[in-house]
């Protein structure tokens, strides 16, 4: 059990650090912690997800909680079901993009409010370790089955504003993108890749952040005459995009593009993660929105969105959050928003993105350091003449460049992002910062 209780979820290697016995106890702990009377539970396609879901449900029902079992679904579908069906707790049995031997649980409260490390996961760990569960219920809870797809499909379709057919290649990575895209059936023309569920991930890792996992999609798009291509992670709460030429589109620029579609029908607050290009906040403002910077991490972003009733938020990792999806991710809605824009334009996706490529970014650079806190303090002193932002790590803005440095939560690493108006300036400042962090 050691080490499975993470900052944002519960995750471990099946048979080594996580198994049915532990997961049943986590189910009991969740019911004890939340005092919930009804929970909504979904699962991915991993080999052991079925038995882990059953064990989790046994723990919940032992404490008297009724369970609505969604069966196989994507994580966005599970969040939507939690909100729609009035669950007092939600759980998705998945290890996201991790390899097939991993599994875990993503947890939420009522209305899909996430349970993270300091808002419940640490409490669950203590309850499980001490076995300090509430007494079992005199009458165990009951399990019922529910198919959320029809409601989720109607929910997604309400965002469609398509003026012509749009052809999209979709890399499912043998995972839950297969279920997420069912919400798009009849709206766009989808050609699937790797569309057989297989929890061993036989073709490639289900992680669109790694560019090598997009190679097959890029080839398919270049050969097939598609409007664009998309790739989902393992539980389909993230999605990556390539344009009609098969070129990878940076995920922060996709935030700006999706915001354009949403802001064309309603003005409001849009959050962007602080590692995003300056172009993102500029585009949000140019389209009548109110740009607001967010911390990195889904729990922080969802909280900030709720506080400001934000329309939308995008994260550099490919998470796209929608107010109408209970302030949670929906990869299907992200794909549909892009399809809307492409269908209403006489220009391809590459040309819609081109005006957003206003600056030159370094990409995230990880450096191993002895004392991350000392590095951050050193950078504050060195760049005290810039505009300092301490929302997440240290960000400093100047007229023609900016940087952010954040410490890893789990490793002696700092993560650097630099952007500038010219490549020469970006590279010079990048090298300068890397050298300073190494001192």
Q: How would you summarize what this structure contains?
A:
With 439 residues, the protein is α/β, with parallel strands linked by helices.
Please tally the β strands and state the result: 22
Q: How much strand? A: 15-25%
Placed side by side, the strands forming the largest sheet appear as 1-5-4-2-3-6
The residue ranges in which pLDDT falls below 50 over 5 or more consecutive positions are none
Average pLDDT value? 96
- Report the principal-axis shape: globular
CA radius of gyration is 22 Å
Give the termini separation.
Answer: 38 Å
Walkthrough of the structure:
By secondary structure, the chain is of the alpha/beta class. Helix content is 34%, strand content 23%. The protein has helices at 20-34, 49-62, 75-84, 121-130, 149-157, 177-180, 215-224, 251-263, 278-286, 298-308, 331-343, 349-353, 372-382, 423-438, and strands spanning 10-13, 38-43, 66-72, 89-93, 102-109, 143-145, 167-171, 189-193, 228-232, 239-242, 248-249, 269-273, 290-294, 312-314, 320-322, 328-329, 360-361, 365-368, 387-389, 394-397, 401-407, 413-420. Helix 1 runs parallel beside helix 2 (49-62), helix 1 (20-34) crosses helix 4 and helix 8 (251-263) packs across helix 11. The radius of gyration is 22 Å and the shape is globular. The two termini are 38 Å apart. The mean pLDDT is 96.
